[in-house]
């Protein structure tokens, strides 16, 4: 198997912690020299990469047909054995592209890869007691039961055990349509996938919606949209990811580029 996934730490102001080099499996190894990567930070206040360069790494990885994982706040991750035997670990999955709520798609290559990553974690020995929760955002006027039934059938076909939670988000998605209308009126142009059309008000509301769900999860899996084609929007794209994931605790943003599931068997 060829390596096809790039995992990166999130670009924020939290100093990176190198836990890998301290692990006994590597600290006592004669081959531990390969772990001596150059430091991410030049000083306590300055990183080696600019925000634009960081997003360029993500964009290049996607262009090279690599899956991308961005890990935020994993220094706060508590493993199941640290929670106590009575506590049930929760793995929350939000498979919709929250930067493009108008897409309305729950089943695409990226969301399926996202679901697979969460499922693999839930199947490991340490996490086998974990409960996998899949969140379905619905608007009034739609048929949420129909969407839920389709997702339930997909989970059955893929043999994935997960609990589906429907989340009304009319008030949240209304902020997106309002900001998009304003951006269209100001520019006279209408680009459905334009990063500039997604406001911080909307992203802040999504962030609160995620945090308001019952019981704080052990880890969250979110859909990572591909970076915009316009490199001048790279910094804005990163700012939006920061607002979206602010204060969520251990969060893995996932972007998949190739099909990983099949229902043909």
Textual characterization of the structure:
- The chain is an alpha/beta fold and 265 residues long.
- The protein has eight helices and seven strands; from the N terminus they run E-H-H-E-H-E-H-E-H-E-H-H-E-H-E.
- It has helices at residues 24-27, 51-63, 80-83, 109-123, 144-157, 170-187, 200-211, 234-245, and strands spanning 5-9, 67-72, 90-94, 131-138, 163-168, 219-223, 251-255.
- The protein has a seven-stranded mixed beta sheet with strand order 1-2-7-6-3-4-5, with helices on both faces.
- Helix 5 links the parallel strand 4 and strand 5.
- The longest helix has 18 residues, at 170-187.
- Mean pLDDT is 83; it is low at 187-192.
Calculate Rg over CA atoms.
19 Å
N- to C-terminal separation?
22 Å
Tell me about the biggest sheet?
7 strands, mixed
How many beta-strand elements? 7
The gross shape turns out to be globular
H/E element sequence: EHHEHEHEHEHHEHE
Mean of residue pLDDT? 83
Alpha-beta classification:
alpha/beta
Percent range of helical residues: 25-40%
Could you tell me the strand content as a percent range? 15-25%
What are the segments in which pLDDT stays under 50 over at least 5 consecutive residues?
187-192
Number of helices: 8
The order of strands across the largest sheet is 1-2-7-6-3-4-5
Secondary-structure topology with pairs:
Blueprint lengths: L4 E5 L14 H4 L23 H13 L3 E6 L7 H4 L6 E5 L14 H15 L7 E8 L5 H14 L5 E6 L1 H18 L12 H12 L7 E5 L10 H12 L5 E5 L10
Parallel strand pairs: 1-2, 3-4, 3-6, 4-5, 6-7
Antiparallel strand pairs: 2-7
Helix pairs in contact: 2-8, 6-7, 7-8
